Structure formats: C-alpha cells, structure tokens
Amino acid sequence: MSGILAMNAPRTLEIRGLGKSFGGIQAVKDISFDVRPGEIVGLIGPNGAGKTTCFNLITGFYTPSAGQVRFGGDDVTARKPFHMARLGIVRSFQKTNILKSLTVFENVLTGHYMEARQPLWRTFFPGRAVRETERTVRESAEKIVEVMGLAHRMDTPASVLSCGELRLLEVALALAAKPEILMLDEPAAGLNSLEARQFGEILRTLLDGMVRSVLIVEHNMGLVMGVSDRIVVMHFGQKLAEGTPAEIQANPRVIEAYLGGGKKA
C-alpha cells in the first residue's frame, strides 16, 4: 500500500511533566511518556483517570498548568488545535463529527479543506493549479475510504451507516488532514467484538504510509492489547505504569487498579 503521508523526517512526540488543575482538582499530574515513529501507544485507565484531559492538553484544547509538549524537539506546548493539526498532530473525538446528510466520500472530501481551500478569485477563474489540487484531493479521499474498508459504501449517505462503519468514517476524516501522529479517543466505543477486531487490523495497516504513529485512548482491552506496541496506564490523573502489553497485563498494580483484580490472559 502506497501512503499519502508527506515525507518529512520522522518526529517523536514527547510529553514531559504534564499537569492540569481545575480549581482545586488535579485532573492530570506529572505525566511523561513518548510516542515514537512507527509505533502505536495505548493510553488506558479507569473512567475519570484523566486520559481525555491528557489528550486535550497535548492537542491544545487545554492549556497545561505544568509541563511541556515537544514534537520533533520543538516546544509546542499550548499551541492552538489548528496549529497542532498543521504540525501533523490530529485527533478524533468521542462524539461523532460526521455530516450525516453527506455520503462517505463527500465526508472525507470535506476533511481535506486545509489542502483544498483556494482564494475567492480562483473560484471564478480556476486554472491548472486548482484543477490539479481538486484531482489530488479526490484521489486522496478515495484512497482513504478504501484503506478504511469503506469502498463499498463510497456513495452511501452517512445517515444509514452502522455504528462500526461510522467509527471507521470518523478515523477516515482524521486521516484526511494527513496527520503524522493520529490520536484516537475511544474509537471502538459501541463496536461489537468482530467490529473491534476488524478495526484493530485496519489500524495496524495505517503505519504503512498513512501515519507515522498512533496514540489511542481505549476501554476495549482486547483491541488496545492487540494493537499497541507500548501502553501507558493512568490512575487518578497520574501515570501508574508503562510497558509492553505483556508487561502491563502482568503488572500487579495495574491488575489491582484497572483490570479487575485477576490476571488477564
């Protein structure tokens, strides 16, 4: 599979001592970890552990009370979300942002707005450059739809998609922004076991040219354990553990705090 990612030098996302307080409540405290090129990192923890807040801090939706976010060695702490997206850090959301009245293809096409936008006068006098951009954007949208396993739904209105197909379309919209790091916030929510397994298979293929790395928040342990190279566990806003899926599954502190008090296979 040939990719669509721009061929800039691979960059590491570094989170150092990240913290956030809301009044007297410490939602995130002293979180540090890396997301390196070529890997999928899972971020897990019980409800209220601070995972989504951590996402919001990394992507500029919240301003940290402490700590730093670096990307490729550059300090990008508290950059605005649209700046982060232009840098190549793009996230999905728990709540759908699909345009239900549009088809699958049209939804993904709208996700290319940063690449496709033109000056107003170009609308009335489109030249070769505009036509070439339109062709490139349409080809990119078609490719993303195919990679996400939705080619048979290309011209289907989003309003009639299943829950699983909508989740795939949400990721396709994020891919349309051509991220270097794709950040997914509970992408398997509402999926059955078969859909979650299929989603995991697709997710691994994205590292083959679509994205350089993935950071995923997920409650589906089968999915996150199956696709992640490393896992970071949060508990009460702090990092409880970090390691491979096997190491996390065998960690007594994680078992006690998150996995239910018994060792998981």
UniProtKB/TrEMBL annotation:
Annotated GO CC locations: plasma membrane
Keywords, sorted A to Z: ATP-binding, Cell membrane, Membrane, Nucleotide-binding, Transport
Matches recorded under InterPro entries: AAA+_ATPase, ABC_AA/LPS_Transport, ABC_transporter-like_ATP-bd, BCA_ABC_TP_C, P-loop_NTPase
Highest taxon above the source species: Bacteria
Residue ranges of the TM segments: none
Keyword Transport among UniProt keywords: yes
One Pfam family per UniProt: BCA_ABC_TP_C
Protein name as catalogued: ABC transporter ATP-binding protein
